From TrEMBL:
GO molecular function: 2 iron, 2 sulfur cluster binding; metal ion binding; oxidoreductase activity
Family matches, as CDD domains: fer2
Protein name: (2Fe-2S)-binding protein
InterPro entries: 2Fe-2S-bd, 2Fe-2S-bd_dom_sf, 2Fe-2S_ferredoxin-like_sf, 2Fe-2S_ferredoxin-type, 2Fe2S_fd_BS, Beta-grasp_dom_sf, Diverse_Oxidoreductases
Keywords: 2Fe-2S, Iron, Iron-sulfur, Metal-binding, Oxidoreductase
SUPFAM superfamilies tied to this protein: 2Fe-2S ferredoxin-like, CO dehydrogenase ISP C-domain like
Organism ancestry: Bacteria, Pseudomonadati, Pseudomonadota, Betaproteobacteria, Burkholderiales
Domain 2Fe-2S ferredoxin-type as annotated: residue spans: 9-86
Amino acid sequence: MTASCGAEPPLHLQVNGRACSIEGVPRAATLLHLLRNDLGLNGPKYGCGLGQCGACTVHVDGVAARACVIPARGVAGRAITTLEGLGTRGRWHPVQAAFEDAQAAQCGYCLNGMVMQAAALLARDPQASEARIRSELSGNLCRCGTHIEILDAVQRAALRMRAEANR
């Protein structure tokens, strides 16, 4: 019998549809740290570190969540989707395509959070009104002032998703 004084077991989770097993994840590590530093996924950004700005937003089992305040070990066995897993070049998710079409980015730092929050909303409610979209995105900060373009992009995405659903 071997003792493992303080050694952490591997962390198992699904990231962007792929099974991951990560060794040596410290108890204090956040999901954001794990995604960026261990898995090299740079979509989620470090903004405030308090879960208030939205730059780190990912989907956990399809629900938008702030990765900077989620303990990495708290998502063991869960499905995590980052911006990199939402769509691919040539086959963007409708929200990504709409953001590109609407030129809704200026510096782009908030873009991850805006896209991920909007994608989660439209997955739940493809008929989301402008007021609902504004409310849903109100916790995502954009310091560049592209709010009008972002709102336009989300409305475009909603139209695309409804059109695709009706095909």
